[in-house]
């Protein structure tokens, strides 16, 4: 049962005498290194990295005593191996005037302070429109890439963050309109658009074109329209784009007009103003696009659609 | 598909921007007071002088640099710039007309067919960029010519480039691509 300690630099540090090639399995609870081939315990009294006491609390809000460091992401920040001086308990930590000694607990990762600020801002923005974690992670990654490149250094970080959020939503296949991003950001649509183009150039990527179908489920749910109407509107919009009835119109406007047509033909009617409010398009824009698709209305509806208002009775604006 | 030789496309030059130097310091206040057809923008530090004959607007800085916009051809730009220098000379400055350079040319061209923009963007991925939410046209950049074309779905194309020749060759280059993604008239 002899174990041979070889060079500490070479991994694995110890090898099983019978199987020198096999990689040892570490059992960190018991502090052993075990050979998987024969089960020999090769190294023992290896330092235990498990938790020191058992924790039973379910809520994560209270500090987890078994964790030594914070769960920061070393992938994004500079690696989180800094030490901060804590607030201080007891009487000895206060000097004469009542101020605490060692006040200086700031200046951690000063080089990436702006980046951490931006991450916080991104999380806040994403929270407001309930974006899932994967989009936020993608946004953080994009922001980090842009920030490290420094080609957009003069631009406001918030603008870059908003543009990264827009790109991340696009890349994940669930695009948000610029106006939706504007609603949760303090930056103007113009500036976000500018940063968006600059970032695409800087990262040398491109994004897919937006289609009408990307927004249907969101807009229809916000308007409270049933699934039938949503499917009809999706069909109408897709058909309209295929037949190229609406050249040069933004897909959002076409989608809004399709929703209007579908809702007016069903029992759940919505006014142009309501749809315009949800989609972020002016109601005159909906009117324009609607005028373009109205002549071909019978062809655009899906075959199995139940009309509450027949096609010829659809409002003509 | 020899599309170019059948059709003669009219490229209309709408704007030519040029710069020149007068090689002497100009007193903007004097120009503003004594010159005809001038607007003095004191906050920015420049004087706008509008000429009637070649319809030209010139931005004059006190360093002696002048930017001339609004001409419809390169020769007209040169005439206008010279005329401007002459009028500054009449005001009493020792003007020497140097470093004349045409900086930007804007031209408009109309295709006889409409264009399908999404298809066009897909076929010309790195050069073309289309954001319908931001601008209704596809922005196509030709790097070696330093020219930018804005292609609209109606078939009209706006070209900006460093000189007239670049603009003409840009239109020639883009024609086959645009022809591919045209909308056939039924």
TrEMBL record, chain A:
Its main location: nucleus. It comes from the Eukaryota. It holds the Pfam family TFIIB. Its EC number is 2.3.1.48. The keyword Nuclease does not apply. GO terms for biological process: meiotic sister chromatid cohesion; RNA polymerase II core complex assembly; RNA polymerase II preinitiation complex assembly; spindle assembly; transcriptional start site selection at RNA polymerase II promoter; viral transcription. It catalyses: L-lysyl-[protein] + acetyl-CoA = N(6)-acetyl-L-lysyl-[protein] + CoA + H(+). Keywords: Acyltransferase, Chromosome, DNA-binding, Metal-binding, Nucleus, Repeat, Transcription, Transcription regulation, Transferase, Zinc, Zinc-finger. One of its GO terms (cellular component) is nuclear body. It is found in: Chromosome; Nucleus. Residues 57-76 are annotated as: Disordered. Transmembrane segments: none annotated. InterPro entries: Cyclin-like_dom, Cyclin-like_sf, TFIIB, TFIIB_CS, TFIIB_cyclin, Znf_TFIIB. Residues 12-43 form the TFIIB-type domain. GO terms for molecular function: nuclear thyroid hormone receptor binding; promoter-specific chromatin binding; protein-lysine-acetyltransferase activity; RNA polymerase II complex binding; RNA polymerase II core promoter sequence-specific DNA binding; RNA polymerase II general transcription initiation factor activity; TBP-class protein binding; zinc ion binding. Belongs to the TFIIB family. General transcription factor that plays a role in transcription initiation by RNA polymerase II (Pol II). Involved in the pre-initiation complex (PIC) formation and Pol II recruitment at promoter DNA. Together with the TATA box-bound TBP forms the core initiation complex and provides a bridge between TBP and the Pol II-TFIIF complex. Released from the PIC early following the onset of transcription during the initiation and elongation transition and reassociates with TBP during the next transcription cycle. Associates with chromatin to core promoter-specific regions. This is Transcription initiation factor IIB. It comes from Pelodiscus sinensis (Chinese softshell turtle).
From TrEMBL, chain B:
It comes from Pelodiscus sinensis. One of its GO terms (biological process) is DNA-templated transcription initiation. SUPFAM superfamilies: TATA-box binding protein-like. This is TATA box-binding protein-like 1. Its main location: cytoplasm. InterPro entries: TBP (IPR000814), TBP-like (IPR015445), TBP_dom_sf (IPR012295). The keyword Coiled coil does not apply. Belongs to the TBP family. Gene3D superfamilies: TATA-Binding Protein (3.30.310.10). GO terms for molecular function: RNA polymerase II core promoter sequence-specific DNA binding; RNA polymerase II general transcription initiation factor activity. Pfam families: TBP.
């Amino acid at each position: 049962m002899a174990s041979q300690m070889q060079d500490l630099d070479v991994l694995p540090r110890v090898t099983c005498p019978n199987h020198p090639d096999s990689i040892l399995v570490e059992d960190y609870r018991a502090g052993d290194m075990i050979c998987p081939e024969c089960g020999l315990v090769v190294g023992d009294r290896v330092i235990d990295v498990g938790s020191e006491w058992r924790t039973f609390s379910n809520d994560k809000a209270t500090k987890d005593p078994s964790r030594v460091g914070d769960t920061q992401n070393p992938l994004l920040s500079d690696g989180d191996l800094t030490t901060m001086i804590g607030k201080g308990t007891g009487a000895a930590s206060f000097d004469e005037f009542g101020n605490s000694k060692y006040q200086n607990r700031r200046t951690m990762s000063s080089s990436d302070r702006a980046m951490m600020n931006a991450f916080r801002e991104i999380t806040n923005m994403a929270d407001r429109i309930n974006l899932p974690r994967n989009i936020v992670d993608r946004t953080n990654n994009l922001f980090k890439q842009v920030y490290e490149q420094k080609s957009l250094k003069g631009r406001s970080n918030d603008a870059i963050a908003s543009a990264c959020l827009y790109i991340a939503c696009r890349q994940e296949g669930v695009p948000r309109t610029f106006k939706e991003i504007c609603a949760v950001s303090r930056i103007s649509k113009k500036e976000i658009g500018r940063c968006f183009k600059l970032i695409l150039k800087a990262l040398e990527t491109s994004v897919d074109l937006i289609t009408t179908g990307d927004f249907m489920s969101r807009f229809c749910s916000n308007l409270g329209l049933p699934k039938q109407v949503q499917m009809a509107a999706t069909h109408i919009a897709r058909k309209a784009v295929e037949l190229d009835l609406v050249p040069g119109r933004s897909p959002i406007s076409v989608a809004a007009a399709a929703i209007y047509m579908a809702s007016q033909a069903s029992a759940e009617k919505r006014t142009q103003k309501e749809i315009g409010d949800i989609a972020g398009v002016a109601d005159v824009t909906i009117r324009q696009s609607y005028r373009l698709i109205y002549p071909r209305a019978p062809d655009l509806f899906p075959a199995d659609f139940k009309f509450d208002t027949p096609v010829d009775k659809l409002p003509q604006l | 598909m020899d599309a170019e030789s059948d059709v003669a496309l009219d490229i209309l030059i709408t704007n030519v921007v040029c710069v020149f130097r007068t090689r002497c310091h100009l007193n903007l206040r004097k120009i503003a007071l004594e010159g005809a057809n001038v607007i003095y923008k004191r906050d920015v530090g420049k004087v706008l002088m509008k000429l009637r004959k070649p319809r030209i607007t010139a931005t004059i800085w006190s360093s002696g640099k002048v930017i001339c916009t609004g001409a419809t051809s390169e020769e007209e730009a040169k005439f206008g710039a010279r005329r401007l220098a002459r009028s500054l000379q009449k005001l009493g400055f020792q003007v020497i007309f140097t470093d004349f350079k045409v900086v930007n040319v804007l031209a408009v061209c109309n295709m006889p067919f409409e264009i399908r923009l999404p298809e066009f963007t897909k076929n010309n991925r790195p050069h073309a960029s289309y954001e319908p939410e931001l601008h209704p046209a596809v922005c196509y950049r030709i790097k070696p010519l330093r020219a930018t074309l804005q292609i609209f779905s109606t078939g009209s194309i706006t070209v900006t480039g460093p000189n007239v020749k670049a603009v003409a060759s840009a239109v020639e280059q883009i024609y086959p691509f645009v022809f591919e993604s045209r909308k056939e008239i039924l």
